[in-house]
Amino acid sequence: MALLALPAAAQVKSGSEFLSPGMARQQADETRNPGFFWVEQGEGLFSARPPQGQACIVCHAEPRQSLRGAATRYPQVDAASGKLLNLEGRIEQCRVERQTQPAFGHESAELLAMTAYIASLSRGLPMDVATDGAAKPFYEAGKAFFERRQGQLNLSCQQCHDGLVGQKLRGDTISHGAGTGYPAYRLEWNSVGSLHRRLRACSLGVRATQFDFGSPEYLALELYLAGRAKDLPVETPAIRR
Ligand code: HEC
Ligand code: HEC
After folding, report:
1. What does the pLDDT read at residue 52?
2. What is the pTM of this model?
3. Which residue spans of the chain are classified as CATH 1.10.760.10?
4. Which residues line ligand 2 (CB under 6 A)?
5. Is 56 annotated as catalytic?
6. Which residue puts its alpha carbon closest to atom 38 of ligand 2?
7. Which CATH number is 126-240's, of 3.10.450.50, 2.60.40.3250, 1.10.260.40, 1.10.760.10?
8. pLDDT at 75
9. Angle between helices 216-228 and 195-205 (to 10 degrees)
10. Which ligand is the nearest neighbour of the Cα of 73?
11. For residue 190, what is the enclosing H or E element?
12. 68: exposed, middle or buried (C-beta count within 10 Å: 0-12, 13-18, 19+)?
């Protein structure tokens, strides 16, 4: 029974399995993986005292233990607001409500660094988002988005990331779109970028609407992808082409 109920996620592989051997080695080597530069920046920021308010580390002592595993549980529904928050959203919430500082802002160097740092504390731990209960409607919305044909090319996410896995497209090998290494360092960006930045690139690729960073559409999609990736290890910061 349990086996039959398993979603396609059972076969979903990490994007890292589709890397060239050279890039896979570079990703694994902290001294050669440029993403670790952002991780270090994030670690510094975590301890830095803002003009007012407290440093993150004052409330989150021993982050290597206290925040280890946190990233495996995002996106998740915020109990107080009922909103779906990804890791970036939770960090911004703490930044504004608890640290009483202005939000870092989507795709800012600070938010990317902080997110990369906190996600890196979960490296190797299995993804474990809730997709039932309060999360269910968001998960279902993400699934519907994933399966819907869209854009001038009239392609769904699923057609590429389930149907064409392993095929080449413009020099890339199409993966399952697991997204377990984000924020990731992408050679094309020459920088670390968020999962939503990657999703915008995929939307543009099929000439479909690009939703905003942190939009409800991409958050729901992120939850669905994370649900499909259940039990895959967190790999932030990954390296991608
Ligand atoms: C005044 C205390 C305080 C400050 C300052 C603070 N936080 Fe938090 N943070 C909390 C509390 C309380 C929670 C919710 C309880 C929990 O989940 O452990 C939380 C939750 C979190 C979570 C979610 C943890 C999880 O397991 O889901 C993250 C990530 C986080 N904070 C990051 C940060 C970052 C980054 C900063 C600095 C920008 C920061 N926090 C500043 C008190 C604080
Ligand atoms: C025309 C085929 C195509 C479509 C349609 C498409 N993508 Fe992609 N996507 C790619 C290619 C190619 C890459 C880069 C190689 C890879 O990692 O799969 C990629 C990368 C990704 C990644 C990053 C994976 C990683 O590990 O770095 C995610 C996540 C993703 N896509 C999600 C989506 C979602 C969600 C949709 C629907 C909105 C979508 N894609 C639509 C082709 C597509």
Report:
1. 87
2. 0.96
3. 35-120, 126-240
4. 15, 146, 155, 157, 159-161, 169, 172, 174-175, 177-179, 181, 184, 198-199, 202-203, 205-206, 221, 225, 240
5. no
6. 157
7. 1.10.760.10
8. 98
9. 100
10. 1
11. none
12. middle
Looking at residue 4, its pLDDT comes to: 41
**8 Å CB contact between 85 and 152:** no
Instruction: Answer left, alpha or beta for residue 156, where phi above 0 means left and psi between -120 and 50 means alpha.
Output: beta
Three-state SS sequence of 138-182 = HHHHHHHHHHCCECCCCECHHHHHCCCCCCEECCEECCCCCCCCC
Q: Give, using CA atoms, the residue closest to atom 28 of ligand 1.
A: 91
pLDDT at 2: 38
Cα gap 27→238, rounded to integer Å:
6
CB neighbour burial string for 189-227, b if at least 16 within 10 angstroms, e if fewer: eebbbbbbbbbbebbeebebebbebbbebbbbbbbbbbb
Q: How far is the CA of 41 from the centre of ligand 2 (A)?
A: 28
* CA 74 to centroid of ligand 2, rounded, Å: 20
Give pLDDT < 70 ranges for the chain.
Answer: 1-10
CATH superfamily ID and name for 35-120: Cytochrome c-like domain (1.10.760.10)
Phi-psi category of residue 229: left, alpha or beta, with phi > 0 → left and psi -120 to 50 → alpha: alpha
Q: Give distance in angstroms: CA of 81 to centre of ligand 2.
A: 30
Given the structure tokens 């938010």, which residue do they identify?
111
228 within 8 A of 127, measured Cβ to Cβ: no
